[in-house]
Design goal:
It is built from three helices and two strands. By secondary structure, it is mostly helical. Strand 1 and strand 2 form a beta hairpin.
């Protein structure tokens, strides 16, 4: 992967993370977790696509389809595994 491909990959993965954060909501800390997860998922998906020679939807040196698939899977897995926002869980009031 070239430097241009790496920068494009970071940009695409970050855009996916920002969109996911807009849809799911949460704090700035959660956004940072989503961005890190998207980067890991994107480059893992790209690498897996390279290893198994799955070259669907190439964009320059990036295997875009496996990379996006890895990004989506990592974001969904992160959303499931990270504990919910404290704001979204309302505690019952005691009287």
């Amino acid at each position: 992967m070239t430097l241009h491909g790496f920068i494009l990959g970071i940009t695409i993965a970050s855009a996916c993370a920002f969109l996911f954060h807009i849809l799911r909501g949460g704090s700035l800390k959660r956004l940072a977790i989503y961005v890190a997860s998207a980067w890991i998922g994107f480059f893992s998906g790209h690498l897996l696509g390279e290893l198994i020679h799955w070259q669907l939807l190439r964009l320059g040196s990036i295997n875009l389809f496996p990379a996006l698939l890895g990004t989506i899977l990592s974001l969904v897995l992160t959303a499931v595994l990270v504990k919910p926002n404290s704001r979204s869980q309302k505690k019952p009031r005691r009287r």
